[in-house]
Amino acid sequence: MDRGWLERVGPRVYRRPRQVANDPLRWDVVVLSLQQVMHKALHVGGRTAVELSGYAHYLEAGSASTVYLYGQGAPTWLAKLPSTARFELRSDHLFATGGTGVEMRRFDLRSGETSAQTKEAEANSPWEWSLTMSVPERAILEMMDELPHHESFHQVDVVMEGMANLRPQLLGNLLQECRSVKVKRLFLWYAERHGHSWLKHLDQSSIDLGLGKRQLVPAGRFDARYQITLPTELPDLDRHSVTSSIAGDRSRLSEPHCLFAGGRSVLVSDEEYLTETKLDANDNAAAESRLESTIMLKYPHRRRK
Q: pTM of the entire structure?
């Protein structure tokens, strides 16, 4: 340090001097150093791995970047580093086997992007180092484990909507190894909600969903199939929840109805059905037009046939 060959950036942490004084450390350089130089058993997971896997456009950008690291042995000085991101440390207790769904991915330090290709060989140049991270199938389960306090149901919802190419065999292994009943029930609920084609190839018979109800949010809506309470503000939640046990009670929510408007059918809940059909009382073309306009404006996310 006296000769200017190194500069101190934290307790027992040094680097080569930078042209810009007090330049913060890039988070990816920090993680690569932990993995490749210090050989720490840490991997990038959760929301961060979801973003690096190409789903960043589904996520809302925050005011400050957060990097989720999973594993053991993170140094105590990590939280004190002047980095471009804040590090959130998580144990790997979520899965019985820590290595399932964790791979080394080619990482471009220049662009900050990962490649779909895995790389097992250890490269000599830091520019060719690989980043150890969760694949999308594991990352989304890690992200769901953050619900409801550190992630939002809406963010998970939009990410799951885009995950149309997950691998059912790997998912089956991860769900069998997953220790969280909450995560497993939520994942299956979201998968069914978005109707992904890989769900029919997923063997659910070996997945332990536990017993009893899980209240994830207070004053939410109860899903009878998966025995979980979910936020009421999730769009289209009515299609998945059954809160009425009284047959024929039209004043409470039950199964969705198919309401025809302008030659197209729109899925609506009982509550919406009772509200919107009042516009169609005259049973004429003008009323039908008003009905269609009202539904499409009020419920633009509704699935049309």
A: 0.72
Q: Which residues contact 113 (CB under 8 A, 6 or more apart)?
A: 52, 107
How many independent structural domains does the chain possess? Answer: 2
Q: Which domain holds residue 21?
A: 7-208
Find where tokens 């979910």 sit.
Answer: 230
Residues 36 and 110 in one domain: yes
pLDDT per position as a tens digit, 269-298:
433 333 333 333 344 444 444 444 444 444
- Give the up-direction half-sphere exposure of residue 189: CA atoms within 13 A in the CB hemisphere: 27
Do 148 and 282 share a structural domain? no
Beta-carbon contacts of 193 under 8 Å, excluding residues fewer than 6 positions away, are 157, 160, 236, 239, 240
Do the beta carbons of residue 299 and residue 257 sit within 8 Å? no
Instruction: List, edge to edge, every strand of the sheet that includes 66-71.
Output: 86-90, 66-71, 42-44, 130-134, 102-108, 113-118
Is 238 inside any structural domain? no
**Residue that terminates a domain, selected from 208, 236, 269:** 208
| Residue 96 domain flag | yes
- CA–chain centroid gap for 256, Å, is 27
Cβ atoms of 230 and 219 closer than 8 Å: no
Each residue's pLDDT tens digit, 124-135:
566 678 899 999
8 A C-beta contact, residue 220 and residue 230:
yes
On whether the CB atoms of residues 87 and 78 are closer than 8 A, the answer is yes
Q: Are residues 203 and 251 in the same domain?
A: no
Q: Are 251 and 112 within one domain?
A: no
For residues 83 and 251, give the distance between their C-alpha atoms in angstroms, rounded to a whole number: 55
